[in-house]
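User: My collaborator sent over this chain with a note saying "see what the structure looks like." That's all I know about it. Can you take a look?
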Amino acid sequence: MSSLPFPSWTGEDRRDRSRPTSPHTHHLDAVFTLARTSEIYDEDTGAHVLRIRHIVERLAIALGWNTDDAELLGCNAMLHDIGKLYVPPEILKKSAGLLPHERMIMQMHTERGARLLAGRESMEQAARIARSHHEWWNGEGYPDQLAGEAIPIEARITAVADVLDALMARRSYKEPWSFEKAYNEIRRLAGTQLDTNVVDALNRCNDDGSLSQLFGLSDRCALRDHA
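Assistant: Without extra context I'll predict from the sequence alone. Here is the result:
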């Protein structure tokens, strides 16, 4: 993968030294450690959660959040898939479609992640994200079939970031999508799976092409069509 415009997982570089010291620094360090553990079976270890952090922060600011709250949200969003620690690696790494019982096990990562984080005041927001980031705007998601604004806003923001990352990241089984193609797909999901307001904010976030740069892509690059 191309060099990413944010820190690696090693030593002091885990923290973005271009930023002043944050009141969330110690919380961020703890989250980094947990989030990296949740990515242990991922071919893109660590980079996925760092991209999620950056995208979520940008989305929150575009939606009117102040910088400090957006930074904390981005930090907590890195734990969205912490419940996958409880999913057997043979299911996590399976390239073919999941069988019904495997899909049920996979979907349980939301509840298990929330339980893992519950009971800690500093992790309340992270627990809401872990539980609800697979809820759909139309109520057809899981685990609680929440709909619309009943879905925590933190989870709605993280859901858009997670879909963007799934489409734009390079994987062994697919080429990365351009931002334009990924955004068009996300726009198609607005109002059914995703919150339209958050989707609108996503387009504003890439005015300078910075989201594309997270994936080592140029907005002008030619990519194969995977429609």
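A starting point for your reply to your collaborator: Residues 47-62 form the longest helix (16 residues).
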